[in-house]
Description:
By secondary structure, the protein is α/β, with parallel strands linked by helices. It is built from 12 helices and 11 strands.
Amino acid sequence: MDVSGGSGQPRSGNDKPAEHPAGPTAPTTDPTHPTGPEPHPGTPTATPQDTDDTGAGTSDTTPTDAGPGGTSAPTGDTGRTDTPGAETASPPQTPGTPAPPETTPAGTGAQHGTHPEHRSLAHSGIAKGEPLQPRPKEPGGGILMGRPFGVPVYVAPSWFLVAALITWVFGGQLDRVLPELGAARYLVSLFFAVAFYASVLVHELAHTVAAIRFKLPVRRIQLQFFGGVSEIEKEAETPGREFVLAFVGPLLSLVLAGLFYLAMKPVEPGTVPGVLLAGLMISNLIVAIFNLLPGLPLDGGRMLRAVVWAITGKPMSGTIAAAWVGRALAVAVLIGLPLLNQSGALGGSSEDTGGMDTVTDALLAAILAAIIWTGAGNSLRMARLREHLPELRARTLTRRAVPVETDTPLSEALRRANAAGARALVVVDAHGNPLSLVRESAIVGVPEHRRPWVAVSGLAQELTDGMRVSAELAGEELLDVLRATPATEYLVVEETGEIYGVLSAADVERAFVKAMARPS
């Protein structure tokens, strides 16, 4: 998840409600009341419910490269979703600024599960029952080539590098097979590179169609260095569907290899069409076999994960088993691929293998091994992420807020917030409709002696539709909404349209980091 800015303190992570700092005890003279969760000493916090982890089968925050034609399971990013990975430093405490509560490990909510007894006269400006829809944004990731089945297909910049490499290597082979082509061999080689990646796209479309058939959202397809990746944002509900979702990609590659083999039959060997068809047949066969290797992040790893999931009933167990097999495969590729080439087992002659070929083989093996090892590690991290996502709840992470009108001096707004034990300010109009959120970082930047002359409206960020968040959101759904509209603060509202409080992106980051730090 991309979370921008914000530096607020996390709410309490223990089983007691967060205690607000001592401040003026006299009630505020402002006719409005603070919004957000009321602290009730002794009231236990709502305990997050566990849900199944998703492992490698979803997109969620950062998708893993699946090698040639493989799928990644983001997450969320999701999709290629970036997750918050580092804590944000808290701002220096300045006089007059609403003091944060005692900082304790975040990750669980500090509020009680019931709705607060008092609500502001302000409302969110959204009609009751109207769904909160984030603005859809393009995932990006390269050059948009089209939208088959409604899914954007991107070509990453790294594809041009590998296309040039394929053109150069295949051109050298054509020079030995068809020397009469001369320089034109590189045009034929470029056509082969494009046709090969078209086959990889078909492989990825197979995953996409299966995902759509199972009602799983697909964020995008990306063609990149060493293959393609389909970013499926949700996990399959059953191990059987997970197995099918992973198997259809290699199956389509095998079908393509068979079709190219049949197309070779009527073509004369030693011609340009014959050489191209033979190359495409062999390359699709390699893609299918490589992706059937039983280790994450490859399709075969997801199939293994599905089998272990079906046997144990635990998706996490399947992810762990498939990820460690993937790491073992990475080591085997690193050591075994150069040795196989040296021995001539892959079709070459051991006598013709020179020093440059040895270096090239070792470099290729190292890159492939790094992709597999990294992908296996990412799959484990994504599984842990999915396991802890239910702990992120908008209601428990929300700060209490005080509504203030646009011309209210900052010093007076902060006095009201301190008196109410609130930690956020919502700018409203004369009718109580929220207009903007006062940015915490902007408050810190105003010297204390200037605060009586600075209006809160000059420090606020205007509310957009995507900055209104339902108090009922939790887990992956919450992260998706925040990712769709990056901001430092969000207005949290009830289903009735009433303001519940303000959610700081920094609080979500800290809760996420603390949750990920706990053992599974």
